[in-house]
Amino acid sequence: MRTVRAPATSANLGSGFDTFGVALERPADVVSVERAERTTIEVTGAGAQFIPEDPKKNTVGAVAEALDAPAHIRIDKGIRPASGLGSSAASAAGAALALNDLYDRGLSREELVPIAAEGEAVVSGAAHADNVAPSLLGGFTIATADGVRAVDTNVPLVACLPEEPISTRDAREVVPNHVTIEEMVTTVGSAATLTLGMCQSDPKLVGRGMVDEVVTPNRAALITGYEDAAAAAVDAGAYGVTVSGSGPSVLAVCAPDRRRNVAGAMVEAFEANGEKARAYRTWTGDGAEFV
Ligand SMILES: Nc1ncnc2c1ncn2[C@@H]1O[C@H](COP(=O)(O)OP(=O)(O)OP(=O)(O)O)[C@@H](O)[C@H]1O
Ligand SMILES: N[C@@H](CCO)C(=O)O
User: Fold this and answer.
1) Does residue 134's CB lie within 6 angstroms of at least one atom of ligand 2?
2) How far is the CA of 79 from the centre of ligand 2 (A)?
3) Atom 5 (ligand 1): residue with closest C-alpha?
4) Of 141, 168, 193, 195, which residue is the catalytic one?
5) Relative to the CA of 244, which ligand 2 atom is closest?
6) 2-151 placed in CATH 1.10.357.10
C-alpha cells in the first residue's frame, strides 16, 4: 500500500488564468492505494457525499486508467469539493504519485502532471494543469503548453471559503472568449509582477500581481459577498485579493501578522451577506508527500 498527502492549491492567482498555481500548506487530501484487479474508490471526509465513487466520474479513476494501475483507492478528503482550493486536483495528484510508486512506473513528478490533469478533464471538461502542478511540485507553478516550471516560494496567504459551492465546469462558462489589447497589457504586467513577487517571496509584489480585469470580475459575480469580502480584506491590510481557482474561495495575500485580521474581516463580510464562511491562515507550501 502507498499513502500520499496532497495539498490544496489555488489556481489563476488573478492574472494567470489556466497558468499560475500555488500549493497551500493546508488543507490537504490523503490518498491510499492498494493493488487490485480493477479500480474501486472509497471517499470519506469533507463533502464525501457529493463526490462520486464511480471510477469514470472521480478524478483518481482517470489517473489509474492513464497509468494502467488498477487499485483500491481510499480518499480522505481534507479539501471540500467545488471550493476553489483544488479539491479534485489534490486527489488526482495524490493518486498519481502513489500509483506511480506502487506500480513502479518510474515517472517524474513533472511527467505525472499531464496524467493528473486528465483527472481534471473528467470533472471540468478541461485538462487544466494549474491545480495538479502545484499539488505535485509544490511552491508556485507556471503551466504552459510546453511544460511546467516550479519556483520555491514562501508567501503568507489567507484562503476564505464561503459555503456556497461553485463547480469549475460552471465557472468556465463565464470566462470571456476575447480580450482587448489594453486588457492584455494589464494582464501581462500583473503576471510578470506576480511572478517576480513569487521568486522573491515578496507578498506586496504578489498582491500587486493579482490585478486582473478579464476573468476575475466575471467569476466574482458568481460569489455572493465577494466585493465586500475583498474590500474588507484590503481594509484589514491585504496587499491583494482575488478569486481562488474557479471560486467560491477568495485568496488574500498579506503580511504574516495581518492574517488573523484579514481572515476575520473576510468571514464577517461574507456573514453580513448571509453567507457562512471559514478561513485558512496559511502559507505557500510543498507538494504531495508520502506519509
Ligand atoms: N476526488 C475528487 N475530489 C473532489 N471532487 C471530485 C473528485 N472526483 C470528482 N470530483 C467532482 O469534482 C467536482 C469538484 O471539482 P471542481 O473542480 O469543480 O472544484 P474544486 O476542485 O474544489 O475547485 P477548483 O478546481 O476550482 O480549485 C465535484 O462536483 C466533485 O463531485
Ligand atoms: N484555471 C481553472 C482553475 C480551476 O481551479 C479555472 O479557473 O477554471
Assistant:
1) no
2) 16
3) 88
4) 168
5) 5
6) no
Nearest CA among 124, 98, 125 for reference residue 34: 98
Q: Could you give the CA distance from residue 117 to residue 101 in angstroms, rounded to a whole number?
A: 18
Domain 156-283: CATH architecture, name and number where available: 2-Layer Sandwich (3.30)
246 lines ligand 2 (CB under 6 A): yes
* Burial label, 222 (beta-carbon count in 10 A; 0-12, 13-18, 19+): middle
Number of C-beta neighbours around residue 100 at 10 A: 23
Q: How far apart are CA 291 and CA 97, in angstroms?
A: 12
End-to-end CA distance of the chain: 11
Ligand 1 lined by 168 (C-beta under 6 Å): yes
Tell me whether residue 67 is annotated as binding.
no
Distance 252 CA to ligand 1 centre (A): 22
Among the listed residues 19, 39, 120, 216, the single catalytic one is 120
Burial class (CB within 10 angstroms; exposed 0-12, middle 13-18, buried 19+) of 144: exposed
Q: Convert the pLDDT of each residue in 125-151 to its tens digit.
A: 888 899 999 999 999 999 999 999 999
Q: 16-74: per-residue pLDDT in tens?
A: 999 999 999 999 999 999 999 999 999 999 999 999 999 999 999 999 999 999 999 99
Question: Are β-strands 71-77 and 40-45 bridged in parallel, bridged antiparallel, or unpaired?
Answer: parallel
Strand-pair category, 156-162 with 2-11: unpaired
Show me where the domains of the chain are located. Answer: 2-151, 156-283
- Quote ipTM for the complex: 0.96
